[in-house]
Design brief:
Blueprint (H helix, E strand, L loop, with lengths): L3 H17 L7 H9 L3 H6 L6 E5 L4 H14 L4 E3 L7 H9 L12 E5 L2 H7 L7 E4 L13 H12 L5 E5 L3 H8 L6 E7 L1 H5 L21 E7 L2 E6 L11 E6 L5 H18 L5 H8 L8 E7 L2 E7 L3 H10 L7 E4 L20 E6 L3 H10 L3 E6 L2 H10 L8 E5 L1 H11 L10
Parallel strand pairs: 1-3, 1-4, 2-3, 4-5, 5-6, 6-7, 11-15, 12-13, 12-15, 13-14
Antiparallel strand pairs: 7-8, 8-9, 10-11
Helix pairs in contact: 1-2, 2-5, 4-10, 4-11, 6-7, 7-8
InterPro entries: Mur-like_cat_sf, Mur_ligase_cen, MurT_C
GO molecular function, one term: acid-amino acid ligase activity
Organism: Cryobacterium psychrophilum
C-alpha cells in the first residue's frame, strides 16, 4: 500500500500531460514517480511471478524484445513489456503505471524489458532478473558511452544481477569476457552466426568477433542461412537429448539483413532460457514469422497513397548493415540526419557507395551527409535541410519503377518525419 500515493500522482500527471500534449509527454509521469517513490520501479519489476527478463546491449534491443515477447505469448505466457521501447528509467516507470494496480502489483506472469545499458546499470543493484540477454557491444552514442570497454563494464554490471541465466552473443569478444566473469551459480547460453553466414557478410556485423567456429550446431543458437527476409537457425540440443541432432527452424524476418536474423537468434535463445522444458521450437518459429518491423527499423508504411520503407540508422554499424541490406538499385532514397548526430564524422567509417543515387539529403546535418555521400561517389540531387520540405518534394514524385521509396534517417530525422506525416511518434525513443 505504500506506493498508492505515488501511483495516484503518476496517473494524474499522465492525464494532464496527455491533455496538454496529445500523443506525447509519456515519460513525465515516470520522472515524477521516480522522484516521489524512488524504490517503486525496482520493487515492481522484481514482483512478477515468473520473474524478470532484461534485454540490453548497444544495438538490437527493440527488435529482440519484440520477438521475445511474441514467442513467450505464443506459449501462453502473460507478458508485461515496455512496448513503446521506453528503455530508460522514467520510461520504464511510465510503462508500469499503465498496468500496475493501486497496490503496486502486476497481473502478468513475467516481465520482459528492453533496457538502456547506461540506465540499466544505474538501477541494476536493485534488480533480480531471472534472465539477462546481452546483444552486442558497438561504438554507439559516443557522447554517452565514450568507449567499448565502458559499455562492456555496464553490461557486466547488469548481467551480474541475473539469478538463473545470461544469454550472450558468442561472436562478441567483449560479451564472451563478460560471460567468463560470471559466477558458477548462473548458466550461460550462447548464440551467434555460422562461418557461412559470416562469409556472405564480408563487412561483418559491427562487433568484435571471436568467430562462429566456437558455436557448432547443437551447442548454441546459430544463424546458418540468411536470404533476404528468410533465415534458418539451428537450436541447441538439451543435455537430456545429447544424442539427438540439432533442430533447425526457418523463419520470416521483419526486415532484410543478417542483423535481424541475429536478433531472432537472441530472442530464441532467451526464450529457451526463460521457458525451459516448456519451450517448443515450432511454436517459437511461427511466432517469430508473424511480427512486423519495429518502429522505423525496416518498417513499410503507406503515406499519401505510396508505400515507403523507413530505415533507422543509430550508429556506424547499423548504418553499414542497412546500406548493405537495401534492395540493390533502389531508385528513390531520401536521407535525413538530424541533431542527434552531434559529430557527423561519427558516420564517416560507413561505406555508402552502395546507395548509388540519393534524391534528397536532409536534416540539420544535410550538408555533412551529402559531403560524405559525394566522397563515396553517390550522386545527390538536392540538399534540403528542412525535413518537411524535403519530404513533401520526395513524396510528390511518381512511384519508382523498381523498389520502394526509401527514407533513411537518424532518430531525430525519424521523429521529424513521423510528425510531419502524421504518424505515431515515440518520445522515449528520442530520450
Amino acid at each position: 500500500m505504500r506506493y498508492v500515493p505515488a501511483i495516484l500522482v503518476g496517473r494524474i500527471v499522465r492525464t494532464l500531460a496527455r491533455w496538454r500534449k496529445p500523443g506525447g509527454g509519456s515519460a513525465i509521469p515516470g520522472l515524477v514517480v521516480n522522484r516521489v517513490a524512488p524504490a517503486f520501479l525496482t520493487t515492481t519489476l522484481n514482483g512478477f511471478p515468473q520473474g524478470l527478463v532484461v534485454v540490453t546491449g548497444s544495438s538490437g534491443k527493440s527488435t529482440t524484445t519484440k520477438m521475445l515477447v511474441a514467442i513467450l505469448r505464443a506459449h501462453g505466457t502473460s507478458v508485461f513489456t515496455n512496448s513503446s521501447t521506453a528503455n530508460i528509467s522514467q520510461g520504464l516507470t511510465s510503462a508500469l503505471l499503465e498496468q500496475v494496480s493501486l497496490t503496486g502489483r502486476m497481473s502478468d506472469d513475467i516481465g520482459v524489458l528492453e533496457m538502456d545499458e547506461g540506465h540499466g546499470a544505474l538501477i541494476a543493484g536493485g534488480l533480480t532478473p531471472r534472465v539477462v540477454a546481452l546483444t552486442n557491444v558497438m561504438v554507439d552514442q559516443i557522447d554517452r558511452f565514450h568507449d567499448s570497454e565502458m559499455v562492456a563494464a555496464l553490461l557486466a554490471k547488469i548481467a551480474a544481477r541475473a539469478t538463473q541465466s545470461v544469454v550472450l552473443n558468442a561472436d562478441d569478444q567483449f560479451l564472451v569476457e563478460v560471460g567468463a566473469g560470471l559466477g558458477a551459480t548462473v548458466s550461460v547460453a550462447t548464440y551467434g552466426v555460422s562461418t557461412d553466414v559470416l562469409a556472405a557478410n564480408p563487412r561483418g556485423l559491427g562487433y568484435a568477433r571471436t568467430a562462429g567456429e566456437r558455436l557448432k550446431a547443437g551447442t548454441g543458437t546459430l544463424v546458418t542461412r540468411v536470404a533476404g527476409r528468410v533465415a534458418d537457425l539451428s537450436l541447441p540440443v538439451a543435455p537430456s537429448q545429447s544424442q539427438e541432432p540439432a533442430t533447425t527452424v526457418t523463419i520470416d524476418l521483419p526486415a532484410r539483413g543478417t542483423h535481424y536474423a541475429v536478433d531472432a537468434a537472441t530472442a530464441l535463445a532467451t526464450a529457451q532460457a526463460a521457458l525451459g522444458d516448456q519451450f517448443d521450437s515450432a511454436t517459437a518459429a511461427a511466432a517469430l514469422s508473424t511480427i512486423p518491423a519495429v518502429f522505423g527499423r525496416g518498417e513499410i508504411v503507406t503515406v499519401r497513397g505510396q508505400q515507403v520503407e523507413f530505415v533507422l540508422v543509430q550508429n556506424p554499424a547499423s548504418f553499414q548493415l542497412n546500406v548493405d541490406a537495401l534492395e540493390p538499385h533502389t531508385e528513390q532514397i531520401l536521407i535525413a540526419i538530424g541533431s542527434d548526430v552531434r559529430d557527423p564524422s561519427y558516420f564517416w567509417p560507413v561505406d555508402t557507395s552502395g546507395l548509388e543515387h540519393v534524391l534528397f539529403a536532409s536534416g540539420s546535418k544535410a550538408h555533412e551527409i551529402a559531403l560524405q555521400l559525394a566522397y563515396d561517389d553517390v550522386r545527390v540531387d538536392r540538399i534540403e535541410p528542412d525535413v518537411p520540405t524535403a519530404l513533401d518534394a520526395f513524396l510528390a514524385l511518381p512511384a519508382p519503377e523498381h523498389g520502394l521509396k526509401t527514407i533513411i534517417f537518424s532518430a531525430d530525422g525519424m521523429r521529424r518525419t513521423r510528425v510531419h506525416l502524421g504518424l505515431e511518434t515515440n518520445d522515449e525513443e528520442q530520450s
